[in-house]
Amino acid sequence: MLTKTYGSAVQGVNANTITIEVVVSQGTNFYVVGLADNAIKESQQRIESALKFRGYRMPRTKVVVNMAPADVRKEGSAYDLPIALGILHASQQLNTEQLGDYIIMGELALDGSLRPIRGVLPIAIQARKEGFKGFILPRENAQEAAIVNNLDVIPVDSMQQAIDFFEGREEIAPLRIDTRDVFQHSVNQYTADFADVQGQENIKRALEIAAAGGHNAIMIGPPGAGKTMLAKRLPSILPLLSMQEALETTKIHSVAGKLGTNASLLTTRPFRAPHHTISDVALVGGGGNPQPGEISLSHNGVLFLDELPEFKRTVLEVMRQPLEERRVTISRAKVSIEFPANFMLIASMNPCP
Predict the structure, then answer these.
(1) Three-class SS of residue 90?
(2) Can you give the three-state secondary structure of 309-340, one letter per residue?
(3) Distance from C-alpha of 109 to C-alpha of 148, rounded to nearest angstrom
(4) Phi, psi for residue 279 in degrees, rounded to 5
(5) Are 105 and 81 in contact (CB under 8 A)?
(6) Measured between alpha carbons, how far is 206 from 185 in angstroms, rounded to an integer?
(7) What is the distance between the alpha carbons of residues 34 and 347, in angstroms, rounded to a whole number?
(8) Which ranges of 276-319 would DSSP assign to H, the alpha helix?
(9) Which of these, 84, 212, 193, 187, lies nearest to 136 by C-alpha position?
(10) How many Cβ atoms are within 10 Å of 351's Cβ, its own excluded?
């Protein structure tokens, strides 16, 4: 029997819907095809253990899982839940007609409970764009997905709860968040406030002018003069984030896995202060499956380079183009990905070594 479920693959800060086709037929072995990485191929062990723990059986016949489009690389363990539900439906252990109405994502533990995933916000945005009824995902990620309106976000704690939902044994109310209300109540709430700084009138005036015009700045002074303390407080005098900027920033942090569990919309401007030993790739982004670097994580906020002369020359050189174009393009043999990088650069250094 052929069953289709739907997941999503994040590329850059956008998501592409993945169709997961499962066929259970005569024969032996478990096959995953469609450019899946090792984490997905290892899902057989997690799925088999989770099914057994919850009283279901793994088919002892030939199981083929195809992830389409087959020429797009899929990575990570977030496909465990849609593959497991597809196997149950294809082996006639799950009776539902609604599998195709939802995007389903989640990593399975060996006991069938769900672990959080990354990149939830772009997946939810794409699901709404493509007209899916809802998004079934781990409870820890539900707040983030619920930022997207007109999409039923169904938080589940385990594979069993997802099965009960599909078979009508459990009603799960979609999580709803008034995004604008959350945004209005928490916007501009910084832990470090520029108003706390006593004295330092000259440098405060200079940073106020820089903040007003979005200019980059460098602070030169002896250790202990207050350079880092002032830089940390700079985001609190920048203009308030707009709703669009907040969504953009949250998307980038979601893809990078920096939001944490039960997180929602980012409502303050980011402040990133990488260590001076940082590599080129960590700063601008990259890797086999390109991830945003520090300059993209500081999009719509402040990138602070403490002890500027200590950074490697190559690291400083790769920032030249992103500073001019306000974006960074990472090219690979098969794909070119663009990350936004509209940040304010603040640097500090001592007058001499």
Answers:
(1) helix
(2) HHCCHHHHHCCHHHHHHCEEEEECCCCEEEEE
(3) 27
(4) -90, 170
(5) yes
(6) 30
(7) 46
(8) 280-284, 294-297, 313-317
(9) 84
(10) 7
Residue 221: beta bridge partners? none
pLDDT tens-digit profile of 312-353?
999 999 999 999 999 999 887 777 899 999 999 999 999 987
Interval 28-67: pLDDT, tens: 899 999 999 999 999 999 999 999 999 999 999 999 999 9
Judge if pTM exceeds 0.85. yes
Domains detected in the chain:
2-166 (3.30.230.10), 182-349 (3.40.50.300)
- Contact by Cβ (8 Å): 113, 80: no
Q: Which residues contact residue 11 at a Cβ distance below 8 angstroms, ignoring those fewer than 6 apart? A: 72, 335, 337
Listing from the earlier edge strand, what are the strands of the sheet with 62-68? 30-33, 62-68, 14-25, 2-11, 102-104, 134-138, 152-156
DSSP states of 212-253: HHT--EEEE--TTSSHHHHHHHGGGGSPPPPHHHHHHHHHHH
Q: Looking at the DSSP assignment, which residues form a beta bridge with residue 9?
A: 16
- Integer Cα distance of 134 and 271 in angstroms: 34
Cα-flanking dihedrals φ and ψ of residue 166, to 5°? -70, -35
DSSP, collapsed to helix, strand or coil, labels residue 286 as: strand
